[in-house]
């Protein structure tokens, strides 16, 4: 295996596969029948005599031709030798394979094409086509089909829904061919399929009433006789292995590892459930699906070339050791290059059929061109040490996949042989790659050959010294110019100072000094005036650019907005924040910085300085300010106004002093501060009420799009305040959803919105469900389990909920303070909010009603027992007072309350039944 695929497999596939394995969560496997297909784990397994190529396409196990050479039916290939060159097909004999290789977010990649002909029959107007991957191990990515025929309507059939997707017309009865490149409806139309499905169904309807038919044409044409379906740009399949009795049994090599995927948990269609691929461990390459298939990459490095007459030039490219063309001229087989047999002016350096256009041995990099741009997948750019740059790849390489300490233990195979070289360890994105060699500071050259690092004469570099330069080995030193000499930067040496009469020199010096002083004062004065004028003009320009005139007309048009909203000047906000002093920063997130400020009327405010936004979004921003300024809800942070005199508008909000719900939930327990379950239930109710108001009670529906515990602020009385509308979107009255770029916070993001890009009110419901789980479990939305795996809190909760283990994972403080009915009700409500499909989730109004019912029951139960009056009083006080009040309760009352709590936990949860019925589709 060459160095380029070696680095691809090590850094791209390895890194990406591990990330997918962590994100996939808990998976299950399914049983399939093996039959008589080749299994490496069986005794006597061998691939001797099995073909490994068909035409120009190479392949390896688990793919093969015939049952003895392939891992299963899905991987059985067919080679058509009747064509020249031979053509390779998948198991169905229809989908042609062009290339194996590359990685996708879920599985490895195959480049294919598809072509199908449907003959037209007299009197038949409707034709059907079903298209699906040729096996359970394949997954089809978005693709494009060209439909060629005359007077045809093409429909997509999805369950019970049929929709038209394209149509063709042939106005000329003599037409015989069409322009396949445009495919704009004249004899040809294009179908873009961007969804993930198990099977794609298409229906073709031929217009029988058209006045042009083949009978009217003077010649026979395929456009009138058939329907041609061809793929455009190729079909991309990912493949993996699934349905194993035991996970990862196909990874039989000693140094192989398993990378698992769970498509269903990620919103994609999967017929299996558990899917995986095998890869060789870091530092190994080969085939992980066969015994002894993964071998070390670090064998046989020879730091000394065995030949002295090696060719080191090919065309205009210098090829230095450890690379070479001939035996004995390169360090390992992976560093072997090929020089084409063309004339010297046209000679090319080739690395595995890729042209090398530049090499830098000291920096361990080279650039190669991509011969076929259509084979390069722009969706999955190279990762790790490979980076795309225009029409070529910039590749960083290592001498071996060893650390410097490991490499130096074997001096006979140590690559850094130059006397003035050093070892440098190379890694990318937390993935260790190996080591390379570099010349020491003050030296330059090739560190991979003896005496390759040569001293740099720093004295030849311009202005390295402001005096006399003395070059030393690996460094240099400087001394001052002798007396009555000065350094000349043009000549780069010390020259004599020209003598001038003393008096003349004094006069000239004083005159020049006075002129310079006067000129400096004038320049400073004029510059300051000019800057002030420029600043004023710039602020005016920003004000006009940011649609300030439009906002001024919107604000007076509504009396309520005019009373509460103000357009602040930049001077006011600079004074309020002490010129945006960094010590005034109270928050820094993905949408900008938040400063604490004090206005002239002594109001304490939070001033949000957002990141740069597009000019086309300014009008939408102004509209959002005008609408948000009219929101008057006690549980939503109040917008006081904005400033439009900066490049990016500034927003001025009411300052909320007690931090966020996330800080209280996940605070260190050692500080002794915590809110009660009743407080958390009240905060959840207030947050649900605020979101319900935004969805249905505001003048225009507003989708928050970033609901999370860190955006739920708490005031001095620990009342919830929903904040951060930086990603919120306004929705017209006649729309139920909008299509936007996907934004949000990982762990809270609605999976349906993530995959469809369609934002609706149920996206906020999903995020609020994660907040409810946080309140129950007191765990972060993304956490590391005891086994070291990174897990999603929502997936973990849903699995435990389905298994009936809610009580075992709920926080101990919640179990102590809440009744079983309250725990089960909140858990049921969270599960309903976290359902995969938005139509099955409740609305925020239903969520608010359910929480209100729970809180009313809790308040009534406390009021019914006079002993609980002391517990209810701190609800209206700061919560630290609440804690002190609770600590004063006697042990006897606590024991009796616990007995009543255990009795009440046996009650049937009507809330679960309510939420189950509310989520049914209507």
From TrEMBL:
Main location class: membrane
Domain (Protein kinase): residue spans on this chain: 580-854
MF (Gene Ontology): ATP binding; calcium ion binding; polysaccharide binding; protein serine/threonine kinase activity
Gene3D superfamilies: Laminin, Phosphorylase Kinase, domain 1, Transferase(Phosphotransferase) domain 1
Name of one Pfam family that matches: GUB_WAK_bind
Keyword entries, A-Z: ATP-binding, Disulfide bond, EGF-like domain, Glycoprotein, Kinase, Membrane, Nucleotide-binding, Serine/threonine-protein kinase, Signal, Transferase, Transmembrane, Transmembrane helix
Signal peptide: 1-25
Chain segments annotated as transmembrane: 502-526
GO terms of biological process kind: cell surface receptor signaling pathway
UniProt: ATP binding residues: 609
Matching InterPro entries: EGF, EGF-like_Ca-bd_dom, EGF_Ca-bd_CS, Growth_fac_rcpt_cys_sf, Kinase-like_dom_sf, Prot_kinase_dom, Protein_kinase_ATP_BS, Ser-Thr/Tyr_kinase_cat_dom
Entry membrane topology: Single-pass type I membrane protein
A single cellular component GO annotation: plasma membrane
Subcellular location: Membrane
The protein's name in its UniProt record: Protein kinase domain-containing protein
The organism of origin for this protein: Hordeum vulgare subsp. vulgare
